[in-house]
Amino acid sequence: MAGYLVRRLLQILVTLFLFITAAFFLVQAQPGDYSSFFALNPELPPEVQAQVRANFGLDKPLWQQYLIHLRNMVTGNFGISFSHYPQSVREVILERLPRTVALFLTATVVSFYAGFFLGKLLAWRRGGVVEYAATIAGVGLFTVFTPWFGLMMIWLFGFKLDWLPLGKFLDPEVWRDAPVTANQVFAWMLITAAAWSAFLFVALLAAPRLGWRLGAWPRLAGVALTLALVAAVWNWTGAGYLALDILKHLTLPVATLTLISFAGTMLLTRNSMLETLREDYIMAARAKGLPEKVVRDRHAARNALLPVVTSLVFSLAFAVDGGVITESVFSWPGMGMTLLEAVLSEDLPLALGALSFVGVLALVAHLVADVLYVYLDPRVHYQ
Amino acid sequence: MAGGAPAPPPAELASSPDSVGVWRARLRLALLGFRQGWAIFAESRIGLVGVAIIVLFGVMAVSHPVLMATVWDPSVYDPVTGFAFDRPDHPAPPSWRHLLGTDPLGRDILSQLTFSTSSAFMLGMVAALVTVGIATLIGAVSAYFGGPVDAFFMRLADLIIILPTISLLIVLTALFGINLFQLALVLGILGGFGGTAVVIKSQALSIKVKPYIEAARLAGGGPFHIIMVHIVPNLLPLSLLYMMFTVTGAIFSEAVLSFFGILNVRMSWGIMIHTASTGGYLLAGAKYWWLVVPAGAAITLLCGSFYLVGRALDEVVNPRLRRR
Amino acid sequence: MSRESTAPEGRGRTSPAGVPATGPAPLLQVADLAMQYRTRQGAVRAVDGVSFSIQRGQVLGLVGESGCGKTSVGFSLLRLLPDNARLVRGQVIFDGQDLVLLKEEEMRRYRWRRIAMIFQAAMSALDPVYRVGDQIVEALETHGLLGAPGAPLSPPFPYASLRQGKGGWGNLGLHPPASGEGRGETIASDSPSSKGGRALVRRFLSVGNARGDPRAQGRARVAELFHLVGLDPALMDRYPHEYSGGMRQRAVIAMALACRPDLIIADEPTTALDVIVQDRILRELKRIQQELGLSLLYITHDVAVVAEVADEVGVMYAGELVELGPVQGVFSAPIHPYTAALLSSFPSIRGEKRPLAALPGEPPSLVAPPPGCRFHPRCPYASRQCREERPPVVVRDGHWAACWHPLAGSPWNEVAAPHG
After folding, report:
1. What residues of B are in contact with residue C84 (Cβ under 8 Å)?
2. Contacts (Cβ under 8 Å, ≥6 apart) of B229
3. A122-161 residues touching C, CB cutoff 8 A
């Protein structure tokens, strides 16, 4: 198993290398002189131009520029952003990457969980109006034009119902006299979320070993209790209202991205379940006298999960793309919106950096899905 | 003929009277297979719904040039340069002369909608054909030869699968200013070397081990002959299935890029929404619904219909999904 | 129907005709069982009026070509039917209880606990994502056979006795029955790893803390079962894909024995294995069946296998039982031409040399089975009567068949010359 993972990791690294190379030459090959773009940009003062030239080796031959580019990628030196001058590309990315990761991670986890759960139920109760309606709704969400769907969500929740803000990261009104910066608050929110999920995960693993067998409702109550506790702590720090503002802005993009990604998982789970239900070990599980729910959850769904996780590999790139689109529609200042802005304002260093990091995000997600699969399928170890 | 194989090419075969019978038999078999496939396909209602929607869009695509030539005055109804002089201010709500209203620049929405249909079809078809052509060939070749050829194409496919396509396309289109046809080619190439090739290769592998391939090889068929005459035709059903999914992806990608306003096209559904969005009409809520709803619904419906047809075809190609 | 006049003891109306009901009440009595699948083409009558019974400790073999409804009988007994199938009539009286009338939840308690099953494809009958031992423990847990210290087990778990009562089984509340004593030495003798396995079990058991700990109890049980079927107990922590075909089959048998059922339905348990492994597993199954006094319903297309394991044999054709009786009687003097044809298509078990005859044609569609005798399209003796009227029941030498032209004497001689 360790050998397999090491091999996958190496493959991913090679892929990353190829991707960065491709991105570099893509930018190089664009019509118009790359170096003049960089060095002669009138927005940059002369000394900065000189610095840029040295930094990227713009007067050296292409292959040397390429090597310098690779070195810069490793050291994280992406140069200076034109449109965000005097911020460096690294600063822009460091600020925005967590926002994208938060959006992407929440949406992916929630949509996977919900999609799997509903797909399981759909396959189990085959036929009837519910399945038909759910399939239609699923296909609709799966194929809906993402920006249009985002706009519809904004119109419904932001405008018609006026529950949530229309877009952007925060409300300047709220933050006018804030004692801390939005980035600090957001970082603490991420830390809180990570700690909370880790706690729930450990509790989930520990409970059966301690002999606690809780039903669905006590479990939900427990989760709600910990949530309330977290909220109380935030309120006590005095930054609760700021976090709430960011949370409000986060809700609509997350909901949109979740709805879009969830349909694919649901439809796939349904198909996978239907195939699994024909397997002999499902019949064997029934013959063993297991209650239907156990047959469904412990045997059918557990096996149906495998192809769904495999397809996660395909859908992750799709979800990252979906994130890019969603961010643009909601003006959520993450990597996707940064990429689009950079491209539109011809800020090439930023575009290259953002594209590279979107690629890194997709690759890391891919690796995580791989590890998950190895963990879930005992047969992989021996391939 | 590769490999100096004695087997004559099909054209020569067809010239002798016996082989005419062979080809007739093959044709009959193909027709039979098609009829059986259609019977299964027709049972799935979602597939029929998909076909119905595609036909509807086909009618729309055809209607635009016809209407422009007969009823619609180009100076008023041209999707890009027209202007509706008959309305005082724009965007104007739907009226009898402009069934779906006009856009902020005074152009007829229905004309834009129908005009864009044919380009969406064109884009989808080109992308799908390129994808499936490349993927089928690569799949067959990889499966037949195996070894380093296979390893190379499959690693390449892995790479493309992981890439966030839209993000890459955003950079590509913005830097190079590509047009619709070039976009279709790029999408087709990305798809053909990507996931579709993997799926088709695994199918080709199962065909490769069938007895008739061995028989053809024993009869002296060279690799080229076997791949083109025996493997590729048997891959076509699956290829057709993946064409449908490719069309969905291609139309979607085009719409997204147009929506961002970075694609070099005159008019498309994505641009219609882009126009409304940049004009700030979206935040007015449902008041200017005709600017967004028709185009968004068109993209969603056409993508959805090809997806539905693909799903129904899936049941034909993959018997395990059938309802008993 | 005219059948009534010619055969007052028609099949599907009473207990198996011609076999006098002697001795105690049978463990399982199936009467006029009928099951149908609904399909696009119409109702498939997979099982159509089948009646038979199995005594305690007896083996009934069910033979027939593929697609004649043998497997459907097995699944009907457990009421494990797909959505589009249903039992249309009949009774399945198991230990005095009609299973057909039970609610689903009550039926569930019968499955595995009282009636277990060995599946056709052992390869795929084990869930690939769980350890084999855990899958067996799951069955024990489901039926409440693990738990509190000294929990009463009924009926007592008898397998410990087979390994001569060593190792503190009293902790588990097991009471070795007298009948099983002294047989332990023969067990698993063909398994190369059995020595190491045994040592491992001993070591495992010597810890002696199985009391009260369901997990340890479960593992001890699985070790015992593995031992019984000749598997190294260390294998219980492996996954199914790490097993060979023969090992999987043994594991599946161990799983079927886990809850000490009264009846095991074995559906072609050895078909997928190579001949040598097949034979070995067959012998072991037979041995275990005899030692534990199990009843067995052995479903197969292989006449030779039935001759080896079964006490009685039922021959199925097109969803119906056409001949039923003691193996000796049926095989030495079949009444039904189909039985004779089936026998003659297999090489003789006793080494008698004769040409093998393949039966032409295929079993009929069960959507619209042929009228009259269902075998008539393929029967060399078919007459007008066969085509139009249901055949009567003919009783001879303690077994019965439903046929208008019963054969007399040995099939090898009589195949060409019908009697009557």
Report:
1. 324
2. B10, B216, B221
3. 126
Determine contact, residues C240/A379, Cβ cutoff 8 Å.
no
Q: How far is B244 from chain A (nearest CA, A)?
A: 13
Q: How far off is chain B from C36, nearest CA to CA, in Å? A: 14
Cβ atoms of residues B129 and B242 within 8 Å = no
Q: What are the tens digits of pLDDT across the range B55-89? A: 999 999 999 888 888 888 888 888 888 787 777 77
Size of interface B-C (CB pairs under 8 A): 3
Q: Distances from the Cα of B239 to the Cαs of B36, B44, B128, B252, in angstroms? A: 18, 20, 10, 20
Tokens standing for residue C104: 């689903």
d(CA C236, CA C223): 8
Contacts of C44 in chain B (CB under 8 A): none
The pairing of strands C312-317 and C320-326 is: antiparallel
More confident site: C214 or A70: A70
Q: What percent of chain C has pLDDT over 90?
A: 21
All partners of chain B with 3 or more CB pairs under 8 angstroms: A, C
Contacts of B324 in chain C (CB under 8 A): 39, 82, 84
- Interchain CB distance below 8 Å, C138 and A378: no
> How far apart are the C-alpha atoms of A373 and B292, rounded to whole Å?
41
Q: Is A163 helix (H, G, I), strand (E, B) or coil?
A: coil
Count other C-beta atoms under 10 Å from residue A64's C-beta: 11
What whole-number distance in Å separates Cα of residue B243 and Cα of residue C70? 44
Region of C14 please: left (phi>0), alpha (psi -120 to 50) or beta: beta
Find out whether B305 and B245 touch, Cβ atoms under 8 Å: no
CA distance C85 to chain B (A): 12
Tell me how far CA of residue B34 lies from CA of A117, B39, B45, B313, C306, in angstroms.
37, 9, 18, 12, 46
Nearest to C143 among A289, A294, A377 (CB): A289
| Chain C contact present for A283, CB below 8 A | yes
Nearest to A268 by CA among A109, A124, A115, A140: A115
Instruction: Note whether B164 contacts A: Cβ–Cβ < 8 A.
Output: yes
Within 213-252 of B, beta carbons closer than 8 Å to A belong to 248, 252
* C-alpha pair distances (Å), C248 with each of A309, A375, A383, C328: 27, 23, 20, 32
Distances (CA, A) of C309 to A8, C53, C288, C305, C321: 52, 17, 12, 6, 19
Q: How far apart are the C-alpha atoms of A307 and A380, rounded to whole Å?
A: 13
Amino acid making up residue C154: S
Give the number of A-B residue pairs with CB atoms closer than 8 Å: 134
Q: Check B256 against A325: CB less than 8 A apart.
A: yes
- Hey, is C16 helix, strand or coil? coil
C249-291 pLDDT tens trace: 889 989 998 888 999 999 888 776 778 888 888 888 898 898 8
In this structure, are residues B228 and B136 in contact, taking their beta carbons and an 8 Å threshold?
no
Question: Does any CB of chain A come closer than 8 Å to the CB of residue C110?
Answer: yes
Residue type, C71: T
Mean per-residue pLDDT of chain C? 75
pTM exceeding 0.95: no
CA–CA distance, C266 with C299 (Å, rounded to integer)? 6
ipTM of this predicted structure: 0.80
Give me the sign of the Cα torsion angle C308, C260, C255, C199.
Answer: negative
**Positions of chain A with pLDDT under 70:** 1, 31-44, 55-58, 127, 208-213, 381-383
pLDDT, averaged per 10 consecutive residues of chain B (324 residues), comes to: 40 51 78 79 81 92 88 82 77 82 85 90 92 92 88 84 84 84 91 87 85 84 84 84 87 89 86 85 75 88 88 76 53
